[in-house]
Amino acid sequence: MANIPQRTYHTVLPVPAASESSLLSCQGTVPTRIVLISDTHSVPLYGPGDKKHCFRKPLPEADILIHAGDLTNHGSLRQHEATFKVLAEANAELKLVIAGNHDTTLDREYYTRDPIGSEAEQEEQLQEENELVDSVRELWTGQRAKDHRIYFLDEGVHTFRLSSGAQFNVYASPWTPEFCDWAFNYPHTIDRWNPPRNSLAPNPIPSFPDIDILVTHGPPAGILDLTSSGVLAGCDALWKAVQRCRPRLHVFGHIHESFGAEVFNWVNDRKTQVDSPNDSNIVLERGWVGFDATGGAYGKLVYDRAGTRPVLEDGKEALQFGKQTLFVNASIMNVAFQAKNAVWCTDIMLPGCTS
Q1: Residue 163 phi/psi, 5° resolution?
Q2: 185: three-class secondary structure by DSSP
Q3: Are 184 and 110 in contact (CB under 8 A)?
Q4: How far apart are CA 4 and CA 264, in angstroms?
Q5: Distance CA 324, CA 148 (A)
Q6: What stretches of the chain show up as alpha helix (H) in DSSP?
Q7: Is 53 within 8 Å of 83 (Cβ atoms)?
Q8: I want to staple 145 with a disulfide (CB 3.0 to 4.6 A). Which of 14, 79, 150, 159 is the partner?
Q9: Dist CA 175 CA 315 (whole Å)
Q10: What is the helix, strand, coil percentage profile of the chain, to 5?
Q11: pLDDT tens column, 232-271
Q12: Which long-range contacts (CB under 8 A, 24 or more apart) does 220-225 make?
């Protein structure tokens, strides 16, 4: 188990004393429902009676809710508060949140760089900027967040346990390749994701079987990363790391127009797209799933926001750990920054621990 970053153990419920190998000793698996969203950019949920939008109250009930970043448009406290309200009201035992490139006030180094004016003016500006960063971080990591079961994840490995007995590892990171000088950006020439660990790769992604759920803001190369201009914007180094990691689930956003889901089979290097209500891999929950980015299916979207892969297919697990990964681009905004994409809801099996 080399090259594993420092783990953070979160006491969602009382967790037994954990070691680096604690998850590997767990027996059996537990069916777990996960709601996936990303790139909400501080938009509120539409009302429950709005039949023109998927992103409406209430969010589907789940064991875990994951937001894969771009909580805001440009990081104001008011925008953070708006997204916090959406998550606080969601019915989920555990709510996991990462930042994205638009969440500038969660990247202190980025937000406080290059003050302008006289020396006194620069000092005043830095003080105000640091106070705002502190306020935003307190919102996502303070007691109020804990009261609503919200956990903000910095880059690295985090371990959680649910009341069902599911105990699992999450690797999280807000970092994306350079784009328009936004927050949490790294040069395209840098491999941030693979060993060896160094100043350029402070938290490389662990290898299989150490990660169950991978949450990054941006996509890996070639997976739901096609932009409206025809560019594949995913990260090559991240794809290399995902091939080593082979998580059960990889959720991201960032590229709004590539909203969708795919299952990748590591045995034969084959992708299966999960993007149609007629796909046999999709079980619809109370209605249609909207795929605004693909064009013609948008009129079918409205009842009730989410689709899910079944936990079992013919008595066997729908996704076999290490053999298949479910990739989800969970962007709620479309390319025009309109909240027209559907929430994803997936059932997966997570490791079960009873001790």
Answers
A1: -65, -20
A2: strand
A3: yes
A4: 24
A5: 33
A6: 77-88, 108-111, 119-141, 143-147, 236-245
A7: no
A8: 150
A9: 38
A10: 20, 25, 55
A11: 999 999 999 999 999 999 999 999 999 888 889 998 877 7
A12: 220/250, 220/327, 223/250, 223/262, 223/264, 223/271, 223/327, 224/252, 224/255, 224/258, 224/259, 224/260, 224/261, 224/262, 224/327, 224/328, 224/329, 225/255, 225/258, 225/329
And the tokens for 248?
């059960």
CA distance 56 to 74: 23
What pairs with residue 21 in β-bridges?
none
Q: Position 279: which residue type?
A: D
Q: How far is 281 from 293, CA to CA, in rounded Å?
A: 20
Whether residue 223 contacts residue 273, with contact meaning beta carbons closer than 8 Å, is answered with no
Q: Would you say 228 and 257 are in contact if contact means Cβ atoms under 8 Å apart? A: yes
CA distance 91 to 71: 18
Q: Cα–Cα distance between 350 and 33 in angstroms, integer?
A: 10
Helix, strand, or coil here: 14? coil
Mean model confidence pLDDT for the chain:
82
Distance separating alpha carbons of residues 324 and 116, to the nearest angstrom: 51
The two three-digit tokens of residue 107, written as one number: 């990247």
As a whole number of angstroms, the longest Cα–Cα distance in the chain is: 70
Residue with tokens 């104001």: 76
- Going from the C-alpha of 110 to that of each of 70, 105, 165, 202, 207, the distances in angstroms are 15, 8, 39, 17, 30
Residue 180 pLDDT = 86
What is the Cα–Cα distance from 209 to 245, expressed in whole angstroms?
Answer: 7
Q: Are strands 185-186 and 213-216 parallel, antiparallel or unpaired?
A: unpaired
Q: How far apart are CA 300 and CA 305, in angstroms?
A: 11
Over residues 210-227, mean pLDDT: 96
Q: pLDDT above 90 covers what percent of the chain?
A: 59
168 SS3 class: strand
